[in-house]
Amino acid sequence: MKINLKKSNPPFCWASLFWVSTWLLLVLNVDPARAQNTEPVLGSLFAEAQPAPICCGPALVDPESNVWQREDSTAKYQSTYNWQMHRRFGASYSGPNSVQAGGENMFTFSTTAHWGRRVWDGGELYFDPEVVSGVPFSSNLVGLGGFTNGEITRASGSQLLPYVQRLFLRQTWGRGGGSEPVASDFNQMAGVQDKNRWVLTVGNFSTLDVFDDNAYAKDPRTQFMNWGNWTYAAYDYAADARGYGWGAALEWYQGDWTLRAARMTGPKVPNGLAVDFNLLKHYGDQIELEHAHQWWGKQGRVRLLAWHDRAVLASFSDATAYLQSHPGVDPETILNVRGTEKNKTGLGLNLEQALPWNLGYFLRVMATDGRTETYAFTEVDNSLSSGLLGTGESWGRSQDRVGVSWMVNGLSAQRKAYLKAGGISFFIGDGALNYQTENIVEGFYSWGITPALWFTLDYQRIQNPAYNASRGPIDVLAFRWHVEI
User: How many structural domains are present in the chain?
Assistant: First the structure.
């Protein structure tokens, strides 16, 4: 999503708004179970539950009776304020899509309601309205492959903007195999489900709601902030500019195996907000196979994801040829050669593994064909991210989280040739390219102040921003307030 905006407001105004919204959320819903229609589920099933992800949020459990409560409706809320800054960094030159070399700051703010209700046997309906605001570095979302704030995709200026984030139906058909409890969470009601089952999700949601899960690197509101940590940076999944689409996803759970498939809408124009509903011509398909295992007595999961997009896209070979044959033309020549349907494909591997000492390890690696422009995500053709996430239980702070990660983003030969020729793409383009992979390190510590409130300090170092060794490195400091009830 390209954003052209004025300079960001001072962070303290938005910090004040965060505290007001936090106070209102806590006053309106101090006890999540009190506002929901619940009935007990057998406590003996709790022992069969998979370990909860290293995340946050209340669990709907009666500690005295050890009974998991069944929810027939749910109302949960979150609010997040993220402020980031970078100091002046070295740059031999800059272009129209470069991060400004001077020191600057950015922010995002969001408040979301997650409402759900059981509508019939196995059927759940969810509705998530949200208000957001935010201004990126350089007042425009440019200059990086791995952007530093996962919330910025939904923001479009300093004014609060309401919109419908999700509206979808989930239908589950049990197929036996024993029972397992379901924890209360956002867009998930507590209860019991069959281990073997079919699940159909239809409506307006994100592809990432169903695919590419990872207990240790998934949520930019509570875990790592960088785009390359909450999904594959090279995963050009179909979505509108905010990261959501319309479509259907079907999941099959059988023992330790899960198979998923989906078709989702993309934008009418690459990285645009308007949705292309012609799912017979333009779409994003994905299929994912997952296996749960135990290594050395610790639980883990391996996922293999393949995806295919079809849309009206520009090829980098055509854009480079046009640029070289038309001296003096606007260097964003992907716009001049975008006119026919093209295909994009990618393959990714995702690993999560519990470790001793309250640690979890994650790994994501993906490669794509890289022949065409970005459809709906960011400017990365191959990506790797790896890291550790732990809790503060070892030092008596069980609600605290600490994480460290390493990311490497790369470009295809076709995209590199276009940028070296002086081409400008949607998010990147310094006017020239001294190519090196974009390498990012991120570390954070999150303090659990109360069971519903967290404060996070985060640091990211970006070597070769936008794959250009003539610019950077960039050091980004951030703080984040997050409340959920």
Answer: 1
In-domain check, residue 1: no
Whether residue 6 lies inside any domain: the answer is: no
pLDDT tens column, 198-209: 999 999 999 999
Taking a C-beta distance cutoff of 8 angstroms, is the pair 387, 404 a contact? yes
CA distance 483 to 485: 7
**Is residue 2 in some structural domain?**
no
Counting beta carbons within 10 angstroms of the beta carbon of residue 149, is it exposed (0 to 12), middle (13 to 18) or buried (19 or more)?
buried
The boundaries of the domain holding residue 380 are: 11-484
Q: Which helix (H) or strand (E) holds 117?
A: strand 104-120
Provide the terminal-to-terminal Cα distance of the chain, rounded to the nearest Å. 30
pLDDT digits (tens, 9 = 90+) for 105-141: 999 999 999 999 999 999 999 999 999 999 999 989 9
Domain for residue 283, yes or no? yes
| Distance of alpha carbon 26 from alpha carbon 41, whole angstroms | 27
pLDDT band at 155 (very low <50, low <70, confident <90, very high): confident
Distance, CA of 381 to CA of 400 (rounded, Å) = 34
The C-alpha angle 118, 124, 125, rounded to 5 degrees, equals 100
pLDDT score for 68? 60
Cβ-in-10-Å burial (0-12, 13-18, 19+) of 18 comes to buried
Q: Which residues pair with 365 in a beta bridge?
A: 349, 384
Q: Which amino acid is present at 153?
A: T
User: For residues 145 and 439, what is the distance between their CA atoms, to the nearest angstrom?
Assistant: 10
Give me the CATH number covering residue 138: 2.40.160.180
d(CA 172, CA 174): 6
Share of the chain above pLDDT 70, in %: 86
**pLDDT tens-place string over residues 246-259:** 999 999 999 999 99
